[in-house]
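Lay summary. Proteins are chains of building blocks that fold into shapes, and those shapes determine what they do. In this project we predict the shape from the chain. Here is one chain we studied, written as its sequence of building blocks.
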Amino acid sequence: MLTLATRITIGRLILVPVFATLAIYYSLSIPTGANEWLRYLATCVYIIAAASDGLDGYLARKLGQKSQIGAFLDPIADKTLLLTGILILTIFPWGENNWRIPVWFTVLVFLRDNIILWGVFILYRLNKKGGNSRISSGKEVPMKPLLSAKICTVLQIVTLGWVMLKWIPFSPMIPAAITSVFLIWSGYQYIVMGISLLPRNRKGSED
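And here is the predicted shape, written in a compact code that computers can read:
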């Protein structure tokens, strides 16, 4: 049986295509007179979906509803929501004068996430082959979350909000440039951490 927290997580996944559809239709309406209601709805759907991230985690802890499927789906739902928002608002402008997330920023986001993803996969394979007891027992690669990565996630959300809310009359290049610094910084830190977790380096540190 699915717990309430897991159902909320699944609901977040369901809201992703709803947001994407509203966002695309709003962009397509701009040349003939922007339908601002579509923008408001898309923004509200995104905010509800993003807020549900904290809610499902709180309920899982408060009600003792932590589950393997919830732990598996939660990060997938988070990344799907964030990356979909960034990708949609890069491809489809939300205003005149190219009001969108710059392409180079989106490439940097996906490049960093892919490096981390493949890095974890490679670490898992190498450590398992090298006989790491923690990996062999089926547990995750021991990589702790970094402060720079958490800041990076917050700034990516700020960049999205900058484009969606259209409150600030300055180019989205500004938050994108600031966020890119943390993207590169956190990516570098994860690479350094990954190198330290390679089998030969772990053996040297244990000695």
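What the prediction tells us: Residues 26 and 33 are 10 Å apart (CA to CA).
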